[in-house]
Amino acid sequence: MNGTIFTLRNLYRDGTICLEKAGIPDAKLDAWYLLEYETKISRAMFLADPDKEVEKDKAEHYRKDIETRAQRIPLQHITGEQEFMGLDFKVNEHVLIPRQDTETLVEEALKKIRPGMQILDMCTGSGCILESILKFAERKGICVSGTGCDISEEALKVAKENDSRLQTGAVFIQGDLFENIAETYDMIVSNPPYIRTEEISSLEDEVKLHDPWIALDGKTDGLYFYRLIVKESVKHIKKGGYLLFETGFDQGKDVSALLEEQGYEEIQVKKDLAGLDRVVMGRYNKE
After folding, report:
1. CA 196 to CA 248: how far, in whole Å?
2. Domains of the chain: which residue ranges?
């Protein structure tokens, strides 16, 4: 990357080599995403003319992006975006980067959506879960409303920006779980912190060093926030309402038991695309 003439082919090659030397997983893929991000070129355009020259400033930006990624800074923190449910979301260091596993939660929630529902997303973060539910309901012609709650003011700024992009009309409330929640809802969804504290240090650097700790740490057994949310949810859920959680792959049985203890019925555990337990849901039929 030290020459004065930059081509797509050479930039991509050198970027890949740099990331491979740094031990970055999926180095070729990340090198491509960053090239696409900086040059706005498609895969088809690249294949048609790989020796197309790239402007010096764009090449230099790409080089800096590659160096940043080589330091294990998440790709999404460089581009500022992450796709989720086919929608583009703004992300930064204040929110958990949306992951494909979480799409299972959205898909299961959408199966339960009915016109007029009021939905609460607890620990909303970037707002990707709530915004996706509202957007896909809208596409189906189903009118629902949504509220997102998070303890982090900085996370809520991101969620509000995402709502401005998607125009779903979601409302966002800052508070410690149900602290500032006064209404009752037909559906509560949540992807709370659920990683056991002692396990965080074993996660990839991109996660343990750059995702907000507050969005990861589920305390000693990973169930701390499930206990609190399930217990308090019964004060804020309507009769016949649904509570849906994302869970860790080994937490389905324990979270199901928590729902049962608080009177939830029709409890189900759903698996993700990898065949792992990912969503626990139940219905509250008490007055």
Report:
1. 10
2. 8-71, 84-284
